[in-house]
Amino acid sequence: MADDLVFDRSTDAEPGLAVEVAPLVRRIVAPNPSPFTFTGTATYLVGRGTVAIVDPGPDHAGHRHSVLAALDGETVSHVVVTHTHMDHSQGARAMAEAIGAKLVGAAPHERFRALHAGETAALEAGIDHGYRPDETLADGEGISGPGWSLVAVATPGHTANHLCFALPEARLLLSGDHVMAWSTTIVAPPDGAMGPYVASLRRLIERDEDFYLPGHGPALRNARVFARHLLGHRLMRESAIRGRLAEGPKRVVDLVAELYRGLDPRLTRAAGLSVYAHLEDLAERGLVATDGPPRLDGLYRVS
């Protein structure tokens, strides 16, 4: 099976500049570029006159100033959060208080499972445990303003509380970190889980939106085709892991070395977490085995 996944790593986004990226939507990129955030977190202004701010980004005074300056007298009814990673939600409360808006969206952070004895969360530093919304939006619930509405679409996987938001008036989806044009999504147990991530991908493929505005990187056209390719990529990775294990027991570090040849060394840890997420999912399905609960340093074999 060929991997048809092709990324768009165009970098035309200038931090701090409000750009109209779709009808009813402006984007402002935060100045927090990194190997994990690409050019920075995308903050979206939805609507005109009375607007919602989606993913206010890190708690960065300069970014907050850029967002408020772009509003130019407009009213903000809601600050909306897709999920509780610092680069998306850390600045939410300060933004909401600065403009007197209601903070809504994802639930407070929860892991998919409890930590195993002696385990620490791999991406603990990036989790926003202090986030507390004024109102949590469940799947299908939403908010609205003049000429626009945002409807929550539950997409657990990257985090347990991850939400995308449909904007029906523009027939698009604000896809957060679930689907991005520039990269695959990090799925890192115990805060992320591969089984739910894949199920959420399948859910988006079945929806009508074909234009996504992700939490990082450029807009995504023909989004359902891309999502199908993402799904195929994940299934190919799973198949490759099972194939390697059929040769004999291996650890995550062995599988990363064999499956990710030529990988940017800065991304080795992220690749290991992705492999670990696949192994944990395969173990839950009874397709691989390890001694005790699945661990990042465990030895895995075919069941």
UniProtKB/TrEMBL annotation:
Transmembrane segments: none annotated. The lineage of its organism: Bacteria, Pseudomonadati, Pseudomonadota, Alphaproteobacteria, Hyphomicrobiales. One of its GO terms (molecular function) is hydrolase activity. Gene3D superfamilies: Ribonuclease Z/Hydroxyacylglutathione hydrolase-like, Winged helix-like DNA-binding domain superfamily/Winged helix DNA-binding domain. Residues 40-216 form the Metallo-beta-lactamase domain. The keyword Nuclease does not apply. InterPro entries: LACTB2_WH (IPR041516), Metallo-B-lactamas (IPR001279), RibonucZ/Hydroxyglut_hydro (IPR036866), Sec-metab_biosynth-thioest (IPR050662), WH-like_DNA-bd_sf (IPR036388). This is MBL fold metallo-hydrolase. Pfam families: Lactamase_B (PF00753), WHD_BLACT (PF17778). Keywords: Hydrolase.
